């Protein structure tokens, strides 16, 4: 768990499925069973910020397989630095060794072409050799903008989606639910 750099240790028991009524709990629990890892398939959790995509991704990784958790921005930053230092091949191993690579926050920042190419290399090398769980606030049709190149985005999606369970998580954000209620209460009092 420590090597995998998981950001927290939440479980599916901590997840409030009632707050996301359109989310199928069976699909999420199936993800946590990790049968997709045996098949070297992928999972994509898509939805707006704060709906629990990262929580689900982390909870799915608690079943005992080797995991490496990273944001897409950290991956790009680390790969770019490794390339500049002449250690890119070694750095790829960080992302390719674990059974599951969790790529969090795909799409929060647009990438330059060279950065997107590094991401493509990781995904291409991981294809059918390991599993990827990704979280994104962007629809797949927006990935051309994220990766700065429509053809490159299609090549990435081709490898990711070939064997992939796509789980939409659409609904209100958890982090804001109590804060927004408090703001509304304060506004009514004033």
UniProtKB/TrEMBL annotation:
Residue ranges of coiled coil: none
Molecular function per GO: ATP binding
Domain called AAA+ ATPase: residue spans: 39-168
GO biological process: DNA replication
Top-level division of the source organism's lineage: Bacteria
Entry-linked InterPro entries: AAA+_ATPase, IstB, IstB_ATP-bd, P-loop_NTPase
CDD domains (UniProt xref): AAA
PANTHER family, alphabetized: ATP-BINDING PROTEIN RV3427C IN INSERTION SEQUENCE-RELATED (PTHR30050:SF4), CHROMOSOMAL REPLICATION INITIATOR PROTEIN DNAA (PTHR30050)
Family to which this protein belongs: Belongs to the IS21/IS1162 putative ATP-binding protein family.
Name listed for the protein in its UniProt record: DNA replication protein DnaC
Taxonomic lineage from the root: Bacteria, Bacillati, Actinomycetota, Actinomycetes, Kitasatosporales
């Amino acid at each position: 768990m420590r090597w995998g750099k998981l950001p927290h240790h939440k479980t599916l028991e901590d997840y409030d499925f009632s707050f996301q009524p359109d989310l199928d709990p069976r699909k999420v629990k199936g993800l946590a069973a990790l049968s997709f890892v045996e098949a070297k398939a992928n999972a994509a959790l898509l939805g707006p910020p704060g709906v629990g995509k990262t929580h689900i991704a982390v909870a799915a990784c608690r079943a005992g397989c080797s995991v490496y958790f990273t944001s897409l921005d950290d991956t790009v930053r680390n790969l770019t630095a490794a390339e500049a230092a002449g250690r890119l091949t070694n750095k790829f191993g960080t992302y390719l060794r674990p059974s599951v690579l969790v790529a969090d926050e795909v799409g929060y920042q647009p990438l330059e072409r060279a950065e997107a190419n590094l991401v493509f290399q990781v995904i291409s090398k991981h294809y059918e050799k390991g599993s990827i769980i990704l979280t994104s606030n962007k629809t797949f049709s927006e990935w051309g903008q994220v990766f700065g190149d429509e053809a490159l985005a299609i090549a990435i999606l081709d490898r990711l989606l070939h064997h992939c369970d796509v789980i939409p998580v659409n609904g209100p954000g958890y982090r804001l639910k109590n804060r927004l209620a408090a703001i509304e209460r304060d506004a009514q009092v004033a």
